[in-house]
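User: Could you go from structure to sequence for me? I need the amino acid at each position, not a summary. Structure tokens:
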């Protein structure tokens, strides 16, 4: 019986070389498959319902309560809240560029010098003076036009109340306007009263008597002081405050005429502020009036003080 010969074994080096070749083949196949899969992925179109980055941004905006889409935000300017109306102003519009056929200006077309009232005054000029008035006069210190020590005024003040009803003064004390004037002994006293208490002809007649009494008491208490009576200011044609109080410009003009007569009788000086503040219709100009048609804009006090200073030769 013939013996079986053992099969020859491969050398170790050959086995290792074969293993390395197999691994290299697998690696090349893997890289090839990966590159092919990436190319196919790039060519695919995103699914209809898949959210994009813009969709995600829009969802975040909606979660924060903003209903405008990203496109609307880009295409439209942001909403600007309306500015509360505090005064009647109009924005100037830019004139159109002149055409080549624009004629030379004639004498009639040359603009004339502005006739707007002056707003220049010196606060120091009124440093030793006293203004007696109602809520309109309180604006003199509320707007910082004069110091509070130069104003004795109160809401609802009338000529009668000026010598019978106390008001709070700049130093925290209380006194009537007459008492404060006696204590202060100012160089000049400016009275602007009458807007309150003008609801009927009976009230006006009574207020005339109180006005004359106030002037007499001030003259006795401040013998070295010059006294000026400022006319009651007008109201606008659509003044809500004047309508609720039953006041008209005709009533104001009649009362101002009486104040002028009282000045002639007592030696006080009359200042016609009414004529400075009216428009072409004889009403309080909207350039100077607050929205209620009765009180002053801040700039109106500049006009008032400039007028007074120029009238009395300051």
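Assistant: Here is the amino acid at each position, in order:
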């Amino acid at each position: 019986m013939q013996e079986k010969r053992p099969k020859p074994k491969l050398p170790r080096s050959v086995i290792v070389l074969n293993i390395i070749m197999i691994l290299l083949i697998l690696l090349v196949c893997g890289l090839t498959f990966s590159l092919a899969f990436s190319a196919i992925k790039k060519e695919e179109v995103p699914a209809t319902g898949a959210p994009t980055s813009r969709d995600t941004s829009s969802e975040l905006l909606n979660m924060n309560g903003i209903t405008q889409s990203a496109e609307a935000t880009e295409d439209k300017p942001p909403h600007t809240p309306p500015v509360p109306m505090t005064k009647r102003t109009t924005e100037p519009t830019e004139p159109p560029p002149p055409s080549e056929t624009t004629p030379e200006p004639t004498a009639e077309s040359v603009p004339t010098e502005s006739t707007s009232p002056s707003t220049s005054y010196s606060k120091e000029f009124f440093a030793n003076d006293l203004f007696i008035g109602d809520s309109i006069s309180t604006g003199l210190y509320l707007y910082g036009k004069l110091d509070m020590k130069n104003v004795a005024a109160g809401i609802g003040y009338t000529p009668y109340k000026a010598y019978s009803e106390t008001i709070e003064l700049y130093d925290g004390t209380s006194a009537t306007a007459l008492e404060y004037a006696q204590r202060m002994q100012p160089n000049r006293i400016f009275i602007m009263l009458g807007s309150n208490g003008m609801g009927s002809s009976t009230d006006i007649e009574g207020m005339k008597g109180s006005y004359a009494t106030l002037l007499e008491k001030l003259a006795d208490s401040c013998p070295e002081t010059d006294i000026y009576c400022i006319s009651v200011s007008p109201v606008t044609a659509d003044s809500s405050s004047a309508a609720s109080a039953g006041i008209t410009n005709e009533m104001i003009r009649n009362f101002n005429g009486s104040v002028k007569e009282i000045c002639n009788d007592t030696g006080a000086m009359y200042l016609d502020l009414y004529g400075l503040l009216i428009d072409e219709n004889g009403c309080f100009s909207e350039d100077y009036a607050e929205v209620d048609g009765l009180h002053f804009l801040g700039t109106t006090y500049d006009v008032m003080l400039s007028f007074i200073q120029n009238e009395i030769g300051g």
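One structural detail worth keeping in mind: The CA atoms of residues 202 and 208 lie 10 Å apart.
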